[in-house]
Amino acid sequence: MPNRTAVLETAKGTIKFELKETEAPITTKNFIELIEKGFYDGLTFHRVEPGFVIQGGDPKGDGTGGSGKTIKLEVHPSLSHKKGAVGMARSQDPNSASCQFYICIEDAKFLDKNYAVFGQVTEGQDVISKIRKGDKILKATIQ
């Protein structure tokens, strides 16, 4: 069965990324469940670090919010923080990921083995570079 695709619609364009369901089953299951509940619809990208990452998925909009559930850190040797990688944000506790995610604008391999990569952008990398702090995820779906 092929991996599913997450679709994020923004005012700047659409971002699509393949979910790595075999390599990151816990992380992708959590992300898919949140999308199916409409959790991400209307949330903002609260962090934009040029040349590094865009980050969104925080219901509080300030980097401190969660979904009420955490998942354990899940790393796979074949998944790396290369340009377009999608990963789960977390606090200092490796097992604290919840709902916040980031997309790498450029390679950030120093994050490998410390943060869970669970997707790879397949369409819309140009859109990622246009995202600014406060831009909204209008709608998130799974294909």
Brief overview:
It contains 2 helices and 8 strands. The chain has 143 residues and is mainly β.
Q: Secondary-structure blueprint of this entry?
A:
Elements: E1 5-10, E2 13-19, H1 25-36, E3 45-49, E4 53-56, E5 85-88, E6 101-104, E7 117-123, H2 125-128, E8 137-142
Antiparallel strand pairs: 1-2, 1-8, 2-7, 3-4, 4-6, 5-6, 5-7
Query: In CATH, what is the homologous superfamily?
Result: Cyclophilin-like
Low-confidence stretches: none
CATH architecture assignment: Beta Barrel
CATH class: Mainly Beta
CATH topology: Cyclophilin
Number of DSSP helical runs: 2
The tally of structural domains comes to: 1
- Using DSSP, what is the number of strands? 8
Helix content: 10-25%
- What would the average pLDDT be, to the nearest integer? 97
